[in-house]
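Handoff note, outgoing to incoming analyst
You'll be picking up this chain. Sequence as last confirmed:
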Amino acid sequence: MTLRHDTPLPDAREAEEHLRVIREMMERSTRHSTFSGASGVLAGFVSIVGCFLTYGLDNQLLTKTITPPQHSARFVLLWAIVTALAIAMDYLLTKRRAAAVGKKVWSRLGKQMIIASAPGLGMGVLLTLCFWRRRQLPEIYPFWMLCYGIAVCAVGLFSQREVALLGRAFLSVGAVTFLFLPHFGLPMMAVTFGGFHIIYALAVAYRKESEEC
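Most recent structure output, in case you need it:
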């Protein structure tokens, strides 16, 4: 008995369908980005404010105005608020941008991006809890950069080239901070989560304006 190879096998047809869907999502993400430049600028600004407030918390700990447990609790609360504000602003502004280009925030592509970023962001949360229990939160900064960089690089597989570049920048600075600048974690947080987000947002906004002209 001989097998005919001119008819695609079910697995082959399924793989071709997956590739077709991925190509369509990539084309849509490149053609009409829902990214809002204002959300990146605001997220960077909120991160810088968070760094300044953290610096004040650290000074209170050094002057023994607050106890180490109080410092840890306020540290986690502060950055939880910063993260929540950044996410909320990004969602609201992205939703408005998506409506302007005829897309939905909770599209199939958006869900794929969330799934791709989940491992990196989840690891960041776990490491934060671990450092909190050990009372070593001031050493968490390079790990935040690395985890966020991993998440952004994963999202970059479904998005524009600038997203992947942003992720690589976070990974590079996070590694340098961890290896050579462990005592400068907070300033590097301001540079990355603050400055990198602002620069990225302005660069993407400028490119969009150039394409529309």
